[in-house]
Amino acid sequence: MIKNISIFLLLLCSSTLGYAQKNKKSLPDYLQLDNTIKAISAVMIHDVVNPPAAARYYNYVMLGAYNLTALNNKEIVPLADFVKTYKDDNQLSIEKGKYNYQIAAIYCMLETGKQMLPSGFMLQDNEDKYIKLLKDNKIDDDIIKLSIAAAAEMTAKVIKYSKGDNYNKLSGRLRYTPIKGGKNWYPTPPTYMEAVEPNWKTIRPMLIDSSNEFVPVRPTPFSTDSTSEFYKQAYDVYKVSKNPPLEQVAIANFWDCNPFAVTTSGHMMIGFKKISPGGHWMNIAGIVTKKAGLSFDRSVTVLTLEAVTLMDAFISCWDEKYRSNGIRPETYINKYIDITWTPYLQTPPFPEYPSGHAVLSNASAGILTYLLGDKFAYTDDSEVPYGVGPRSFKSFYEAAEEASISRFYGGIHFKDAIVFGNKQGRLVAAKVIEKIKAAKITRQN
Known about the structure:
- The termini are far apart.
- The protein has one domain (about 30-165, about 195-440): Vanadium-containing Chloroperoxidase, domain 2.
- About 50% of the residues lie in helices and about 5% in strands.
- It has about 450 residues and is mainly alpha-helical.
- The protein is elongated, with a radius of gyration of 22 Å.
- Helix 9 crosses helix 13 (about 415-440) and helix 12 (about 395-410) packs antiparallel against helix 13 (about 415-440).
- The strands form two sheets. Strands 1-3-2 form a three-stranded mixed beta sheet, with no helix packed on it.
């Protein structure tokens, strides 16, 4: 009998690793956005939320906070000015000035997560602790009460908007049936999980025009001929895994971000719950807004635009994954090169082309570079709770390049999926930037 044991690391650390310079402005404990993001991420980790769905949750969790901020700060561009599918005017029954909109924004994030996530009820404890924190900081009881009420009203608006994105229709769509043989993706060991979110292209995007707006060039033609380009790419993956240098291993581990990771020991399968790729980049956004010393309102702006970009990046990426339906290196190498070979990282349960890490990391690097500058050095401690890192970067694109190549080092992607995934991600970022530029959203630091 196989036992599934989940090793769950919920270390909501408030590490200061990576803050190479002292914050220009220090926000009070009760306005620390990164702590709220980590609490929401912890529930996603507990629920083993898949990467595209995680990006969707981060998106909606941030929208309410952004709306509350824009409603009370005229310098923040209203969401409807750049997200054309959002029609609500965000007006609340509670008068401005009678509630603290920043407190309401934090509480709205928790409440949205509580209502949307499968195990969102776990965030009730965070809400209770947050109220206690407010009282410990001598916040007036009436302000707390009205701020929570404002958060509840805004949460309802966000939930209503979320219901129009087609997510609730996914379960009714035709299930994906793997096609064995040839170039096609097929479930891989050790879990042989079914394909993750094959219909994600039907989700309503935020700023890109459609899921197929940025279709990448066709992947290298499949071939079993040992002189072919496809075989050479597979052999490159095979070779790079032989006696890898420590730095290569460190890079692969740091960017693993596989919520589905398991290991086997005899008849036991042990699950290692990890943060999603999008969760990693949301952490990065939290780290750099602190280092930049941004105000609460500008931090909300950066985190929201990062979350919006993640959602669109996954929609764009997943559209192509199930169009090309590409075989993973593990399947190909086992059949045509070495039946005993296993990748360093566990192969994720979805088609290979393009690399999701390449798309979303380059999209994230693009939006963060636009908002914070192209030479923003920082140290990323996102993986410390999982026993990995920290790692330092001179820019967001340097981090994106490392995240992309980590999939090659891990043995789970061919080079073309990385190269063209990088380009696709940059195109997604360019479209997001085009839309927010038109709405007059500029650099935040």
